[in-house]
Every structure is written in C-alpha cells, then in structure tokens.
Amino acid sequence: xxLVIEGILPFLFPAFWRESFSKLVTMTDGQLRFVGIISMVxxxxxxxxxxx
Length: 52
Hints:
By secondary structure, the protein is an all-alpha fold. It has one domain (2-51). The chain is flat. Helix 1 (2-12) crosses helix 2 (14-25). The protein is built from 3 helices and no strands. The longest helix has 23 residues, at 29-51. The mean pLDDT is 91.
C-alpha cells in the first residue's frame, strides 16, 4: 500500500516530483529530520482518523 501511495505523485506530476526530489537532496540533515518527523506525525494522525 505504501508503494502505491508513494507512486501517485511521480505518476501524476513527474516534473513536480523531480523538482521536489532535487530540492530534498540539497537539504541539510536537520531539515531532512524535520521533514521526516512531520511526515511521521502526519501519518500517525491519518491512521488515528481512519481507525476512529
């Protein structure tokens, strides 16, 4: 299921995905960690809402 969700953006908007990915590569470790924690918290919120 995770691969399906991750594949939606590059399938629908390949140019936007490529640009976003190139920006991720230039981020510092701290910035990447912040993006990671935001992604994890968002995912947990979605899981909570689905299971409610």
